Amino acid sequence: MTVLNEGRHPGEFLMSEANRQRSRENITIVSGSGIIAPGTVLGRFTSGANAGKYGPAPAAAADPDVGNQTAVAVALYGCDATSGDQKIAAVARDAEVNGKTLTYASSVNDDAKKAAKIAQLAAVGIIVR
User: What is the distance between the alpha carbons of residues 71 and 53, in angstroms, rounded to a whole number?
Assistant: First the structure.
């Protein structure tokens, strides 16, 4: 018998959001980020060549000056940004999300690091339940 594993669905993590799409932003996932699943916790690059683009928020950035280590959004849709920038929608404010369905960067691999990302999301109005 063949076993099928179903992946995450767009918006599956979303419990509530502000009226009229106010919680959402159109963003660009930076090339080299790989496969982004719906519900991936994202950081925004604040300086350098990728300033303004997003990628999975690591526990600590290789270069802290680029800013992507701070979680500021959650990917609403998935994409493949392995070899090129990809545009997707993300939840960026005023929302409640299901913490059991979030996906983190591979370096966010313990409860303390996840708690730090949850606190960072709370600072921008995304509450993890």
Answer: 13
Question: Can you give the residue ranges of every domain in the chain?
Answer: 14-128
- Kindly state which CATH superfamily the domain 14-128 is placed in: Head decoration protein D (2.40.300.10)
pLDDT for 5-51, tens place per residue?
A: 888 888 889 999 999 889 999 999 999 999 999 999 999 999 889 99
Would you call 71 exposed, middle or buried from its count of C-beta atoms within 10 A (0-12, 13-18, 19+)? Answer: buried
Among 86, 96, 48, 85, smallest CA distance to 69 is for 48
Q: Among residues 7, 27, 1, 6, which one has the least CA distance to residue 93?
A: 27
Phi/psi of residue 113, nearest 5 degrees:
-70, -40
